[in-house]
């Protein structure tokens, strides 16, 4: 949580120095980073649910694993 506060404070200071177009672009990048972190957390959560699934896998394998979890 402390890391997130530092990132937000840094972002606010940066945004205060930019024009409106640059602010929109920065906010878009921040939103995308947050979205990717959430997806990453969910993928890790799902991988922890499936036995032996703690390595990087392809999309097809992930779909099989999701179907496995849903069948439980």
Automatic annotation (TrEMBL):
Keywords: Nucleus, Transcription, Transcription regulation
Record-annotated BHLH domain positions: 23-72
InterPro entries reported in the protein's UniProt record: bHLH_dom (IPR011598), bHLH_ZIP_TF (IPR024097), HLH_DNA-bd_sf (IPR036638)
PROSITE patterns to which the protein is assigned, alphabetical: BHLH
GO cellular component terms given for this protein: nucleus
Domain of life: Eukaryota
Subcellular localization, as worded in the UniProt entry: Nucleus
GO molecular function annotation: DNA-binding transcription factor activity; protein dimerization activity
Protein name: BHLH domain-containing protein
Organism: Citrus x changshan-huyou
């Amino acid at each position: 949580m402390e890391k997130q506060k530092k990132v937000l404070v840094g972002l606010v200071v940066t945004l205060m120095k930019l024009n409106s177009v640059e602010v929109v672009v920065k906010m878009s990048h921040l939103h995308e980073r947050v979205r990717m972190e959430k997806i990453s957390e969910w993928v890790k959560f799902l991988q922890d649910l499936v036995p032996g699934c703690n390595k990087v896998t392809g999309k097809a394998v992930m779909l099989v694993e999701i179907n496995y979890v849903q069948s439980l």
